[in-house]
Amino acid sequence: MSPVLGCVADDYTGGTDVAAAFRRSGLRTVLLFGPPRAGTVVPDSDAVVVALKTRSVPSGEAVTASRAVQDWLTGQGVRRLYFKYCSTFDSTDQGNIGPVADALAEAAGARLTVVCPASPEHGRTVYQGHLFVGDRLLSDSPMRHHPLTPMTDPDLVRVLARQTPNEVALVPLQTVERGVEAVRTALAELEARGVRHAVIDAVHDGHLAVVAGATTQLSVITGASGLARAAGGLTGVDLLAGVACRRCRQARPWCSRAVVRRPRWSRWRWRGRACPPTGSPPTTARRPRRWSGWRTASPRRNE
Fold it and tell me: I need a labelling partner for 242 at 20 to 30 A (CA). Which of 45, 100, 141, 179 fits?
């Protein structure tokens, strides 16, 4: 099966980070270091991550390398692209986040993309467009003294606006807390206004899940590993939804026990002897040893 989700990461550690996020969300993930060589064959997978070293190079080189990887991923059958950068938004007024995001979006024909470097698991949150590291603004963190990309401005809208000629706007936390439809509506309004980059607030993983759910229609999204994990989880559910049960012939994830060679990334494991009735997942079932009906299955981390 061709991968459906591809990622361009701007450095090797970031590529490893996002690949781990995809795997934790249940996707079979391939990680490549450096630009793929001609004739590179990708094994059967759900996501492909290509890690580059473009974070601190001149913006023209970063754009060229990222676009080449995007074309290669498209040739592999990838339908959505994720641009991964650091959760501390490492960049200068010349880039490279803005120029690369512009180039990837233009090549994909995307009129709008989102910018969400929040990664609450690592203490990175975004509120009112300002990036926090723990309980401090980015400008008050050690990143202020970074030798290559000193981050002295925590306002992501302002930072990104200096890197791109396109309009940048904010989707505030109040909108995110109203849910997926509210965020989707806000993004549609921004797109109608001609906004190219929508910075979105997020202070916990629930907010990232809302952002991921509201951006499923976008062909290019950008962020750190937090949003990648949320987007990967939705991708895994969508993939499983297309797998039909061998017994009842319905595409229901909790029937996956009946599928021949059930995908290892299946989010549900049905242990009953018969398929449950149509509707919601079962809450009771015949009980084989040590099992009670159905339960959520987390992917093993050492695979």
Answer: 179
Give the H or E element holding residue 146.
none
Judging by beta carbons within 10 Å of its beta carbon (0-12, 13-18, 19+), is residue 221 exposed, middle or buried? buried
Residues 162, 175, 143: CA angle, nearest 5 degrees: 40
Query: What are the φ and ψ backbone dihedral angles of 296, each rounded to 5 degrees?
Result: -75, 135
> How many whole angstroms separate alpha carbon 234 and alpha carbon 216?
8
Written as one string, the DSSP assignment of 98-114 is HHHHHHHHHHHT-S-EE
**80, amino acid identity:** R
114: tokens are: 């989102």
Asked if residues 239 and 4 have their Cβ atoms less than 8 Å apart, the reply is yes
Of 273, 236, 229, which is closest to residue 253 (Cα–Cα)? 236
Q: Taking Cα atoms as reference points, which of 77, 83, 9, 71 lies closest to residue 43?
A: 77
User: What's residue 3's pLDDT?
Assistant: 87
Before 302, cis peptide (omega within 30)? Answer: no
Q: What is the DSSP string of 7-47?
A: EEESSHHHHHHHHHHHHHTT--EEEEESSPPTT--PPS-SE
Residue 38 pLDDT level (bands cut at 50, 70, 90): confident
Closest to 291 in 3D by CA, of 276, 270, 275: 270
Query: Which residue has tokens 């993004």?
Result: 187
